[in-house]
Write a structure and sequence with these properties.
Length: 260
Amino acid sequence: MHEQAPPCLSEISRTGAQELLLRLELERESGRQTACLLLVHASKYAVLSGQPESVLHPEELKYFHSLSALKRKTDYLLGRYAAKRALLYLSPTPSAPDIHIRPGVFQQPVVIGRGCEELSACITHSGTFAAAIAFPTGHPLGIDIEWHDNAVLETLKQHVESPELPPTELCASEVERYIRVWTVKESLSKILQCGLTTPFSVLKLRADPIPNRRAWSGEFENFSQYRFISLSSPQLSFALVHPRRTKVVLPIEQIINFTS
């Protein structure tokens, strides 16, 4: 999705930190598994770009050097960094350059590397942030973040139906209402590995009747096996989609504070 130019890369998040790593417990009746979520601010790029070989696999490094636009280089390096930090948290055997995250046929990240045979990752970036979540391949998760960019509002209105929007009192602006729906649907499309090739009407969501004041949640009309959690800070929205029968406790305040 088109977005406005982000603020200066030298800025840092309101918390003063450049990254936030969170362990997520995936609780099911059959047992518990672990995922890892990492959010990183674009100010980290200044450090990482000095030694990209410390993060990137040789094939990734070749692609990184082929990019000319700073925004694309920043998104690519930060996204790979976030994914590998999260993967290494779950499986600390390999080093970051030993992990190759290559694009699948729908541009989904495919993780290749010793110790990561049963792990997958989902990557997202927007504005001055990137994020990734690593998880057991048998327990799919999808995430998305999107900058609150007024320039995309009219486009989003063509793809989002009014009944899907979160309540006005939960959002600071009209564009936030539409962006939150977009991030939820894009998170689901990542789990389904269909990218944006599926009409958004098929991904229609149905929110819970009593909204939480800090998190907006619900399910999907055509994919009842999944649920979503949506958070928002003043500048961007974050969404996580997970299997319906999995209990995921998100540290809401930490995510909101970091991305504010």
